[in-house]
Amino acid sequence: MSATAAVSDLGTRARLAVAGAAALFLSAGALALTGSTDVLLAVLALLFEKSTLAAALRLSVPIAFAALGGIFAEKSGVINIGLEGLLIVSAFGGVYVTSITGSVWLGLLGGVAVSTLLALLFAIVCIEFRADQIIAGLAIWLIALGLAPFASTVVFGSTNASAGTTFPSIGRLLANSGLPVVSTAGVAALDALAGVPFFGALFEASPMVYLMFVAVGASWWTLNRTSFGRWVHASGENPKALDTAGVRVSRVRYAAVLLSGVLAGVGGAALSLSLGQFVGNGPTMVNGKGFIAIVTYLLGNYNPVGALLSTLLFAGLDALQLSLQGQNVLAIPRPLVRTIPYVSVIVVLALFGKTRLPEAAGEHYESGEE
């Protein structure tokens, strides 16, 4: 059996483990060429710092939520490459609502609402009017890319806007819960765990990081253990059989696309509200995270757990390059350092990204079609 065949026979988690190890090996090998062994050791030390894990978790949130949304849409047969646009509008929507209400939680809901409305527009155009899904997705991205900075300029007088507040830490939430045991013993336990090297970052994370893990588990359960998940799968693989069973394919696809809007909305609002601001310059603060999300769920083979692992791989490499720039460890130009996560993911995707699109992905279907 060839090496390629052996890799293709591995399960999703095993393939991702191999891919992650390959990415780290390729990155370390490339870095070793730029300097001495001391440089490589310094890079590895940065990789296992608590701050690197903290940054990786923070960077993972918008990508993971967008990836989960893309999985639901595409498995139902609708290719949603407009995830970037959904992240952009929800990032602005979250900041706008928060600036009005003073509540990040209402801001989160506002970002979700805006993203869901844009996803509904996308669903109507693709399902009702049978538009080309790729072109419609690009249109959603371009609309959001222009609309969000314009709205920010109209409302705040600048393409950049401040929310005035950010998400509280999990420790602060527990401390303010008012529950006798949770607000004292729980906070003390978190503080102790936060002191653990490297893994302590897990206990200092934003509530959105914990919500990300919950969303991944809930998405996996929904897709694999519920009737709706089976309908989504059938809608993307054999819509005729689903229609014959008495389930409206269009309704399933509408629900899946709207769910992608909800999930992407959480990711976009979490991105801006974690920083307390919306940045609308250039490609905006989203800066390609929606397109990276598409790569992660393809590498994860439409498995929510696989998509999360792929996201953590990219986010970890991205956090590493940020640390490398801050510490100035490598004697190479900073623009070249910034390419490390993207080049690594491209190489891993080319070598290990074996996936199969749903049979009816991108195809239109109306009830009664033969």
TrEMBL record:
Which Gene Ontology terms cover its molecular function? transmembrane transporter activity
- Tell me which UniProt keywords the record has, alphabetically: Cell membrane, Membrane, Transmembrane, Transmembrane helix
What is the name of the protein in this document?
Nucleoside ABC transporter membrane protein
Task: Give the GO cellular component terms, alphabetically.
Answer: plasma membrane
On the tree of life, the source organism's domain of life is Archaea
CDD domains (UniProt xref): TM_PBP1_transp_TpRbsC_like
The membrane spanning regions, by residue number, are 56-73, 78-98, 104-127, 134-157, 207-223, 254-279, 291-315
- Report the InterPro entries cross-referenced here: ABC_transp_permease
Chief localization class? membrane
Q: Which residues form a coiled coil?
A: none
Kindly list the places in or outside the cell where this protein is found, as annotated in its UniProt entry: Cell membrane
Membrane-topology annotation of the record: Multi-pass membrane protein
